[in-house]
Amino acid sequence: MKPKVTMIAWNQNDNYVVTAVNNHLLKVWNSCTGQLLHDLVGHADEVFVLETHPFDSRIMLSAGHDGNIFIWDITKGTKTKHYFNMIEGQGHGAVFDCKFSPDGQHFACTDSHGHLLIFGFGCSRPYEKIPDQMFFHTDYRPLIRDSNNYVLDEQTQQAPHLMPPPFLVDVDGNPHPTKYQRLVPGRENCADEHLIPQLGYVATSDGEVVEQVIGQQTVDQDEQGLEPSILDGMIRQLQLEQDQRTGADQESAPNAPQNGEGTPRRG
């Protein structure tokens, strides 16, 4: 097999360079002389993650598609800590990315199964207040482009960055209780009635009809004909103003391309 470098990283003070090779070895080099100092053995598949510690020049983290996460002392060429990302009933999960916290006390990893792994010192109590499965209800909604090539949410015809804060749902699209909805930026101070999503039936790509979150409006507000939220009202007002400007532009320039979506203009 022809050796190929899959990833490269300098340590914190740039004295060492670590390279990951497709034969599953990590090599530690002297950055000034180019001398090979150590071969780090432990991975069983290709490594695409190399992260240096934010202030300790001895420490380097590596992770790969074999599900292994190593903390290395690259000055001695030894492994300090090892974690294998085994998922019950599914085998191991390939690790796609890792990052240290600025204080160097924690690091977070993401894997091929959609898990966020957080390692560090202390207890895990701060993380127990959040549900195991967290997705935004808009995560997999299709996007389209209008005549100006701007991106729009297909269902609401609105620019994604102007849409109200999304709801937190589980992997099946079921909304979490209101106490979890306040964890979403922009919903911290919402009243309880604004934290209850509107459910509806949506057809999936394979033709199956499932119940999912489809909007921001509550049943009571729908009956009363009220605006679902202040953000929704602002979005509708912006869209109305853009429609009016678009109509005026089209009257003054008959040959201009038509834009029926009413996308807010970018500055």
UniProtKB/TrEMBL annotation:
Residues 239-267 are annotated as: Disordered. The keyword Repeat applies. One of its GO terms (cellular component) is nucleus. WD repeats lie at residues 1-39, 40-82. Keywords: Repeat, WD repeat. One of its GO terms (biological process) is regulation of cell shape. This is BRWD1 protein. It comes from Cephalopterus ornatus.
